[in-house]
Amino acid sequence: MSDLSPEDLAEVEEVCRYKTFAAGTQIIDRHSETRDIFFVVRGRVRVVNFSLSGREVTLDDVAAGGHFGELATIDGEPRSAAVMAIEDSLVVALPYRHFLDVVQRHPSIALKLMTRLARIVRASTERIMDLSTLAANNRVQAEILRQAREQAGDENIASITPIPLHSEIASRVSTTRETVARVLNDLARQGILERTKEALVVHDVERLSDMVEEVRGL
C-alpha cells in the first residue's frame, strides 16, 4: 500500500478494521467463506493446514509488513488454509471489494500482488519436488538452507532467528521431531550448524547448499 497517495490511503484506512490476536489463537479458519485480505502490523502469523489425522502442516510464516488471505480475495473461493497467530499480533482487515478496487486503479500494486503469488507458486513447486524426491533427513537440510538463505543475503554465514522449534521444522517438511533433532545434531558435529542462546547459526551456507543440491541431482 506504500504506492498509494495520502488521499487514497486515507480512504483505505476508513474501511479497515484493526484486530488483535493473542499467540496461539486462530485468525482464519480453512474453508471459511470470508474474503477480506489481512495485513500484519505487528507480530507474526502462520499459514497452516491439517491432515485428517490432525497433523499440522506449516505452509508459510508472515511477519509484520506482510499480508495473507489474497487467494479468497481474488477468486471468491473458500479459504485454502487456516491462519494462526504465533506471536501476539495486530492485524488489519481490508474488505475485499475495497482491495480489488485499489488493485484495479493502481497497476503497481497489482504487479506487487502478482509477484508475491509467483513466489508462492515457485516455493510450492520446490516443496512438492522435495517431498517427492528427497528423504526426510535431506528435507530437513533443505529447510534449514531455505531459512538460512532468507537471512544470509550474500554472506556465507547466517543466523536464523527466532530459533525454529523442532516441531515447526517437522511440520514444514512432513517428518518427525526426532528426525529433525538427529539431522541438526549431525550438522552440528560437522561444524556446519551451531545453536547459540539467540540463534541457529549456519557457519557454511555454501557447504550446506552443496549437500542439498547433490541429493537433488542439480
List keywords for this structure.
single chain, 218 residues, alpha+beta, 4-stranded antiparallel sheet, 8 helices, elongated
Task: Characterise the protein shown here.
The chain has 218 residues and is α+β, with helices and mostly antiparallel strands. It is 47% helix and 23% strand. The protein has helices spanning 6-15, 70-75, 96-105, 107-133, 136-152, 166-173, 177-189, 205-216; strands at residues 17-21, 26-28, 37-42, 44-50, 56-63, 67-68, 82-85, 89-94, 158-160, 193-195, 200-202. The strands form 3 sheets. The protein has a 4-stranded antiparallel beta sheet with strand order 1-8-3-6. A hairpin with a 4-residue loop joins β10 (193-195) and β11 (200-202). α3 (96-105) crosses α4 and α5 crosses α6. The longest helix is centred in the middle third of the chain and has 27 residues, at 107-133. The chain is elongated. The N and C termini lie far apart (38 Å).
